[in-house]
Amino acid sequence: MTESPRPNGAYGSPAPVNPEWPPPPAYAPSPQPAQEPTQEPAPRPAKKRKRARGPAALLAAVAIVAAAVGGGTAYGIQELAGGDTAAAGSTSTTVVPSSRKGTVAGVAEAVTPSIVEINATSNAGSSTGSGVIITSDGEIVTNNHVVSGATSIEVRTSDGTTYAAETVGTDSGKDLALIKLRDASGLQAATLGDSDGVQVGDQVVAIGSPEGLTGTVTSGIVSALDRDVTVSTDEGQGQQQRQQGGGWPFEYGGQEFNGDTGGSTTTYQAIQTDASLNPGNSGGALIDMNGHVIGVNSAMYSSSGSGSSSSDAGSVGLGFAIPIDTVTSDLPALRSGSTT
Q1: Is 282 marked active-site?
Q2: C-alpha span between 133 and 156 (Å, rounded)
Q3: How confident is the model over 305-327, as pLDDT tens digits?
Q4: In angstroms, rounded to a whole number, what is the distance separating the alpha carbons of residues 300 and 302?
Q5: Is 127 in contact with 212 (CB distance < 8 Å)?
Q6: Rounded CA separation 168/178 (Å)
Q7: Angle at 233 between CA 131 and CA 324, to 5 degrees
Q8: Catalytic choice (282, 298, 302, 315)
Q9: Residue 173 in contact with residue 334, Cβ under 8 Å?
Q10: What family does the database annotate (predicted)?
Q11: Which of 86-95, 114-123, 249-258 has the lowest mean pLDDT?
Q12: What is the predicted pLDDT for the residue at 134?
């Protein structure tokens, strides 16, 4: 019923038809090309297997990257914490409580325990200055002119405790000195900052002992950088002037400095500030608003003439500090006992 009638009946009987005649020749060649394309998907299982391995490989790669980042982070922390120790805290240590950051009161409370009053006695007389504690066992940085020629040194901390001290090293060319307290421990060391990052206009705080007034705090801004400042390198010159009862004891060449003066002088580049500095502030700290010491106060200028008395002289907003980077670079020599 499904077959079409044949006109000649040649194919009327299906029995004699051999199923392998026309069909095999017609379709036998085609399996070869047909099988080849079908073999192309053969790699597909392999691709599927690769994709199956992909997440594992990705996870391994992520683990390697995480390990590399972790190692890099640890190394960076070591660099930050190791290269700067006292100055290293400048990037990682909180000196001023966060609730009082950026305030003069906060800086004063945090740093005052690290500032001392220094009383030096020599054959020429006595002088008063300030210093900055840099180690818990009593290493203190101050100005050379504060302790120059001293036969005895007495240091008073902010809590009123007094210590005997001795000079470890001096650098008259930079007006720096390192002294060491005897039998001291547990002191609060200051955090040294980075004076290279200081900019004109930055707010600063100065702490010292002007005229023996221990722990005096003043504030201002950085007025200029790299100012040339000249101070004396003569031993005891300031004390001699004080004994002679002459004019303002720290006058030199029409300028009045926060230290002794004499025929031999040295000039260095300093940070200029309008924070009030007076005699006795020498060796004290100039501090940024994060509580990091950025300079050691060393000199001031006054327009008073040579005939003026010390009571007439005072700060006119022209103070100078030795950059803390200069101090830290000089510490190895000072600790070795250098007396240049």
Answers
A1: yes
A2: 11
A3: 444 444 445 677 889 999 999 99
A4: 7
A5: no
A6: 5
A7: 40
A8: 282
A9: no
A10: Belongs to the peptidase S1C family.
A11: 249-258
A12: 97
CA atoms within 13 A on the CB side of 289: 15
Closest CA to 283 of 214, 193, 200: 214
User: Can you tell me the distance from the alpha carbon of 208 to that of 162, in angstroms, rounded to the nearest whole number?
Assistant: 16
- Cβ 265 vs Cβ 233: under 8 Å: yes
3-state secondary structure the chain: CCCCCCCCCCCCCCCCCCCCCCHHHHHCCCHHHHHHHHHCCCHHHHHHHHHHHHHHHHHHHHHHHHHHHHHHHHHHHHHHHHCCHHHHHHHHCCCCCHHHCCCHHHHHHHHHHHEEEEEEEECCEEEEEEEEECCCCCEEEECHHHHCCCCEEEEECCCCCEEEEEEEEEECCCCEEEEEECCCCCCCCCCECCHHHCCCCCEEEEEECHHHCCCEEEEEEEEEEEEEEEEECCCCHHHHHHHHCCCCCCEECCEECCCCCCCCEEEEEEEEECCCCCCCCCCCEEEECCCCEEEEEEEECCCCCCCCCCCCCCCCCCEEEEEHHHHHHHHHHHHCCCEC
CA distance 129 to 131: 7
Q: Looking at 175, 234, 274, 330, which residue is catalytic?
A: 175
- How many other C-beta atoms can be found within 10 angstroms of the C-beta atom of residue 85? 14
The CATH code of the domain at 102-340 is 2.40.10.120
Question: Is 308 an annotated catalytic residue?
Answer: no
Active site includes 145?
Answer: yes
pLDDT digits (tens, 9 = 90+) for 235-252: 544 443 333 333 333 333
For 268, residues 6+ apart whose C-beta sits below 8 A from its C-beta are: 173, 174, 175, 228, 229, 322, 326
Residue 266: which pLDDT band, with cuts at 50, 70 and 90? confident
Token code pair at residue 51? 């994709």
- Predicted local confidence at residue 332, as pLDDT: 96
- Partnered with residue 267 across adjacent β-strands are 230
Rounded to whole angstroms, the Cα distance separating 309 from 307 reads 7
Indicate which residue of 145, 223, 276, 292 is catalytic: 145
